[in-house]
Amino acid sequence: MGFGPYFLLASLEGLVTAAVLTLTALGLSLVFGVMRVVNVAHGEFFMLGAVLAWAISTAFAGHPSIGFAAALLVSPLVVGGVALLAERLVLRRLNYDPEATIVATIGLLYIVQQLALTFYGPDARPVQAPFNIRVTLPWFGYSGYKLAVIAAAIVLVIATWLVLTRTKVGLVMRATQYDRETAQAFGIPVDRVYAGVFALGAMLAAIAAVLVVPIQQAHYLMGRDPLLLSFIVVIIGGLGSLRGTVVAAVLIGLSDGIISVFFSPTLAKMLATLLVALVLVFRPQGLFGAATR
Amino acid sequence: MAAVSVKAAVPLIETRGLTRDFGGLRAVNSVDFWLDGGEIRAIIGPNGAGKTTFVSLVCGRILPSSGAIRFDGRDITRLPAHKRVLAGIAYTFQITSIFPRLSVYDNVALSVQRRLLKSGRVHGAELDRGVRDVLGRVGLADRAATLAGNLAYGHQRLVEVAMGLALDPRLLILDEPTQGLSDGEIETFVGLVREIAKEATILLIEHNMHVVMELADRITVMNFGSVLAEGAPEEIRANEEVQRAYLGTGADG
Amino acid sequence: MMPGAGSRRAVALHLAVIAVLFALNFILPEYHRGIFSRVMVLAVFAMGYNILFGYTGLLSLGHAMFFAAGLYGAGLPLYHLGWGVPESFVVGLACGVVLSAAVGVLALRTTGVAFMIVTMMFSQVFYLATLYFTTYTRGEEGLVLPQAARRVELGGVALDLTNPASRYMIALAMFSIVLLATLALVRAPFGRTLVAIRENEERMRMLGYDVFRAKLSAVILSGLFCAASGAAYALLFGYVGSGFASIQYSILPLLWVLLGGAATTLGPLIGTLFMFYVIDITSAYTSAYLLLVGVALILLILFFPRGLLGSIRERWLPWLP
Fold first, then answer.
1. How do the domains of chain A map onto residue ranges?
2. B131: distance to nearest CA of chain C, Å?
3. Which chain A residues have a beta carbon less than 8 Å from that of C302?
4. Which residues of C touch B76 (CB under 8 A)?
5. DSSP code of C145?
6. Per the structure, how many domains does chain C have?
């Protein structure tokens, strides 16, 4: 293969990474944007979604698409339920204090991870893709499922954006994000908005995880990288800015795919992390965020 | 060149064209200001006139967009706030800013400690003497062990002033010190400021016209970020422009 | 702090704790003496963390890098260059100071949540670096420092760091120095300055304190203590590996300090000791010790944010430093 096809392949792989990352980071960004808290357990919601997808899809006999469809439906709901529970039992009692919330969600991270290890085990297990089509490109064939993942992510991002900008639910969320006290004074049930947003954020991560398991196997430690990458995306995109999050996720997803083809992944991760830390130090509003607030 | 200055002394504070923008809003607009040592100067003006922003520029809590500030002849325009405090500018906050979880004693001790650190080591006995002295002057000697956050509001204002006082400043900036105090407390406070004025120059933002007329040697009136008028209390009282802008709205309360 | 009788009581208490630890060397069975040696070394890590988190009010999620800086700073020269124990230890300390100064200058431009994330990311970079330079560090597998190299000649007396008794005494010596230094610090003007910055930073600036410099000093001192702990850990227990630089080792000191009581001098020791034995005892029944860490973190932050000593100080012993 020449450089051109090689680059195209890397870009396609990058787009798949970007698609999954966009959904995951969107969840984290939404939670941070509206609630002003950082959910360190976000990666574990992702992992939980993937592990549940395996459990659900293997419970169904017959064509893999049946099991996958069930997983796509049930897994995010269960993860959302877990998140809701955590929000009610822990975060609300902490009054969403940013620092206490981080400590508590670190605790949640350990609990979910350890429970997954205990009940699911240390093995990585595959989930069959719902369909197995190869799209023929001039130089090589490419998995139709991966292209479908990209399409699904685009649809979901647009849907999220529409919900946020065009519906009453979105208006309530934006009002709460803008000013919690005032929103409360205007009769918005801030409490329920927070619960909903936290669950929604976790569900986005779970959907991303279900989409990814046919490509990448489910494993109890698989939440680490998405967490770190989501952090990076949210920071580069500007804390709480949805448009910035999407732009940054696509950029990072693409560059992660491309960089890791040419460099050692460890070096790539190291440089990316350092770069992002420096962005947070010198441009806390992100590379694409508004200048001031 | 032997140019003879009309004013013999260097002013304690002098600002030239001092300006500060917040986004599109010009909070302080090209203020030329002159304050001699030993004065009690009051700054008055309607809400949003830029008074707090102006004194914040003087004490360095915020930096100006343009213009210059001199303190005792020295250019301090770009000097960070903590160095201005060491140079002798003390600021007491409009919204009480104390250490609520520390005792009254410790609140003042932090201030005394800063003054002592300037000249080297901090000795326990000297620190103690300094704290007791200041607490005595503001009348909080019997409250030394109380947590500052548990004090009544009026007493918290006194802690705030005590911290400024303990720095032994050359210029003490008081930002609406009597806000929220009872009449009795205000009388005590006026006496305290007179006492402090023997050693320090005082720049006072105040809404209570009774306090202003009682204390101020001169008054600066600000409106829309600019200086509207300046003069002795009687002149300000007689100034029609000021009355229209400010006094005419019945500000005597 | 108001002058009073509390100060003499506090000094007596700290000396008593050191004396008890000294006596335990002769009383404890071998297994528990080993645990205590480890706990004392790691309590220094927790005390270093406490300087920043407890007293200065800066919550870092990246202190593993300072511990690991000491660990690798001491371990690598000893392993690869054949340096002696004292020189290696000093290199470990120096690495901690340099790293914490550099990280401090950058990270202190941020506050709150951003500070937590920035420190975590710098620490992650350090961790990835220990994996990347695997030729020298052997990554996760790590290096076992040769037993023969872990000896010191001090004034004609040969100390074998692999001997449990000398290991215990060296750990105790370092622990005591750091404990008394912490006690002196919190009673000194600098300690009061840090606490006041934690309580009201803007007010401190307007009292004429150089807040940035004070916070940077706190980061460096914290980094020095943590590096001392890491260096001692490498030299006393003979193992240097990437695991010590992972995020988990940034969370553990936070847990120990929270448990024992933030901004108390003895809290870090108590928290470390307590957690070690909880894990030791439960490991007989389950291998899921991370579950325990997770539950402990959530319960502490929900119901017990002041920790053991913090609560005792609040209720009964207000003079506790």
1. 20-221
2. 10
3. 90, 93-94, 104
4. none
5. P
6. 1
3-state secondary structure of B177: coil
Higher pLDDT, C256 or A135: C256
The 10s digit of each residue's pLDDT in C76-86 is: 999 999 898 99
Assess A282–C contact: CB distance below 8 Å, yes or no.
Answer: yes
The residues that bridge with B103 in the sheet, in sequence order, are B147
Burial tier of B87 (Cβ tally within 10 Å: 0-12, 13-18, 19+): middle
Per-residue pLDDT of chain A (293 residues), as tens digits, is 567 777 788 788 888 989 999 999 999 999 988 888 889 999 999 999 999 999 999 888 788 888 999 999 999 999 999 999 999 999 999 988 887 898 899 999 999 999 999 999 999 998 888 888 888 877 777 888 999 999 999 999 999 889 888 888 888 888 888 888 888 888 888 888 999 999 999 999 999 999 999 998 999 999 988 888 888 888 888 766 778 888 888 888 887 766 666 667 788 788 888 888 898 888 877 766 554 33
Among chain C residues, the shortest Cα distance to A102 is held by: C113
Q: Is residue C93 part of a domain?
A: yes
**Minimal CA separation from C136 to chain B, in Å:** 45
Say what angle helices A224-237 and A3-35 make with each other, to 10 degrees. 80
Nearest to A103 among C106, C295, C297 (CB): C297
User: CB distance C113–A109 less than 8 Å?
Assistant: no
Helix, strand, coil in percent for chain B, rounding step 5: 40, 25, 35
Residue type, C13: L
User: Residue B20 corresponds to which tokens in the numbers above?
Assistant: 């500060």
**Confidence check: pLDDT of C157 > 70:** yes
Between chains, do C112 and A98 touch, taking CB under 8 Å as contact? yes
Q: Among C199, C206, C209, whose Cβ lies nearest the Cβ of B61?
A: C206
Amino acid at position C208, single letter = G
pLDDT value at residue A132: 83
Query: Is C259 part of any domain?
Result: no
The residues near A123 (Cβ < 8 Å, ≥ 6 apart) are A219
Percent helix / strand / coil, chain A, rounded to 5: 75, 5, 25
Q: Which two tokens stand for residue B65?
A: 């967009």
Strand partners, A162: none
Residues of A in contact with C54 (CB under 8 A): none
pLDDT of residue B148: 92
φ, ψ (nearest 5 deg) of residue C261 = 125, 110
Inform me whether the C-beta atom of residue C314 falls under 8 Å from chain B C-beta atoms: no
Pairing of strands B25-35, B66-71: unpaired
Q: Does A284 touch chain C (CB under 8 A)?
A: yes
pLDDT of residue B48: 84
pLDDT tens digits, C12-34: 999 999 999 999 999 999 999 99
CA distance C266 to C276: 16
| In a domain? residue C84 | yes
Q: Which of C113, C114, C294 sits opposite A111 (nearest CB)?
A: C294
Q: How far off is chain C from A89, nearest CA to CA, in Å?
A: 10
Mutation for testing the C interface, residue in A93, A97, A106 having most C CBs under 10 Å: A106
Distance from the Cα of B43 to chain C's closest Cα (Å) equals 20
Tell me the CB-side half-sphere exposure of residue A95, using CA atoms within 13 A.
Answer: 1
Residue C304 counted as domain residue: no
Q: Nearest C-alpha of chain B: how many angstroms from C177?
A: 23
b/e map B173-200, b = 16+ CB within 10 Å: bbbbbbeebeeebbeebbebbeebbeeb
Asked if B122 lies within 8 A of C211 by C-beta distance, the reply is: no
B-contacting chains (≥3 CB pairs under 8 Å) = C
